[in-house]
Amino acid sequence: MAPSSNSKMLFFLQFLGLTLSILSTSLHASDPPLTLDYYASTCPSVIDIVKKEMACQVQSDPRAAPRVLRLHFHDCFVQGCDASILLDDTITLKGEKTASTNINSLAGFEVIDSIKNKVESECPGIVSCADILTIAARDATILAGGPYWHVPLGRKDSKTANSELPGLNIPSPNEDLLGIISKFEYQGLSVKDMVALAGAHTIGVARCENYRSRIHGDWGQTFHTNPATAKYLDDLKTKCPAAGGGENNFTAMDYVTPNLFDNSFYKLLLNNEGLLNSDQAMYSSILGIQTRELVKTYAADPLAFFNHFSDAMVKMGNIVNPEGGEVRGNCRFVNT
Question: Would residue 308 show up in a list of annotated catalytic residues for this protein?
Answer without folding.
Answer: no
